[in-house]
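Hi R.,

As promised on Friday, here is the backbone we talked about, encoded as structure tokens. Could you run it through your design pipeline when you get a chance and send me back a sequence?
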């Protein structure tokens, strides 16, 4: 079990330790924390719970040590950021498989670093390149000409269609599929309607460094060229990204979001749950889109939008209030018209 002194943790997260220095072996939630755990508090509303907690060590905002006189407190500017950094110290190490690689197929032309870990029941195709520290769990499929950067992890049942490129230190959770054909069809007119003709795809998917993709999310290959996800972007479970989409760096895409083909999502964009982005739309740098919104056209840089179609969030909130009152307003208008 890992153990760190509070002073070591404070230095790592960029905080200041107030109180006794001792070893911590785990990170835990406030109501679950024990005496050897480090927990956190970011609001004065929870001070009573914190003082009654068994935990002796806290991450807390600047100045909070005076409210927790019997605790050791690491004061930080941003508790959530400090929590993220501290969590990396206590993360679980991946176990290495023991025994032979039974039922694993590796094409002779594949190049696999000696310090990569490949579990049984994995298929690795022709000319695949797998770098140092990569971990591939059982039942993964890695198609021909794929490249997987150093330190990347593929959890069970990940599928990489041929030509997919993954950067360094990516995490792909179970069921992720990269490189399937996009949803592209041409309608040939017939006497009784039309026939759907498949447009075959010739591109690939490229994923930047430190991208995390949640379970059962899918990213389609480009019709021509590349579908791209920039470095540091985090994608939740059950997200669909269409062909030729380009997503910038450090974006957040929450569950059930769907992005239509050839859309552009610039750096630092945040899309909340169930956002729909129509094909060819543009979301500029730093924009935020509220849950269940529908984006069509272009969202300016830094804009916060909501609704279907998405409009300025401030305007949408006012419109929602009016919408609730529409039946009453209609009655009043009807009375006025009858006079």
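Update: got your reply. Pasting your designed sequence below so it's all in one thread:
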């Amino acid at each position: 079990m890992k153990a760190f002194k509070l002073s070591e943790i404070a230095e790592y997260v960029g905080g200041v330790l107030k109180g006794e220095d001792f070893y911590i072996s785990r990170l835990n939630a406030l109501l679950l924390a024990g005496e050897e755990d480090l927990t956190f508090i970011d609001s004065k509303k929870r001070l009573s719970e914190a003082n009654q907690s068994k935990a002796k060590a806290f991450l807390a905002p600047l100045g909070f040590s005076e409210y927790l006189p019997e605790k050791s407190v690491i004061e930080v500017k941003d508790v959530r950021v400090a929590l993220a950094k501290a969590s990396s110290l206590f993360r679980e190490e991946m176990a290495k498989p023991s025994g032979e690689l039974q039922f694993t197929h590796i094409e002779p032309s594949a190049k696999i670093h000696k310090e990569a870990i490949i579990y049984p029941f994995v298929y690795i195709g022709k000319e695949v390149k797998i770098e140092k520290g990569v971990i591939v769990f059982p039942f993964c499929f890695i198609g021909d000409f794929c490249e997987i950067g150093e330190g990347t992890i593929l959890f069970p049942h990940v599928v990489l269609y041929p030509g997919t490129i993954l950067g360094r230190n990516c995490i792909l959770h179970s069921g992720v599929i990269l490189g399937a054909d996009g949803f592209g069809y041409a309608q040939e007119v017939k006497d009784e309607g039309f026939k759907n003709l498949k447009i075959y795809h010739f591109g690939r998917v490229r994923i930047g460094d430190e991208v995390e993709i949640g379970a059962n999310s899918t990213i389609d290959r480009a019709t021509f060229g590349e579908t791209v996800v920039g470095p540091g972007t985090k994608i939740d479970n059950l997200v669909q990204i269409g062909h030729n989409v380009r997503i910038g760096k450090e974006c957040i895409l929450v569950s059930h979001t769907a992005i239509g083909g050839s859309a552009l999502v610039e750096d630092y964009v945040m899309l909340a749950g169930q956002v729909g982005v129509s094909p060819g739309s543009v979301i500029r740098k730093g924009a935020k889109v509220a849950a269940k919104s529908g984006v069509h056209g272009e969202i300016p840089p830094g804009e916060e939008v909501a609704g279907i179609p998405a409009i300025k969030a401030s305007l949408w909130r006012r419109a929602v209030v009016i919408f609730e009152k529409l039946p009453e307003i209609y009655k009043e208008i009807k009375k006025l018209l009858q006079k």
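One thing I noticed while checking it: The first helix runs from residue 6 to 13.

Thanks again,
M.
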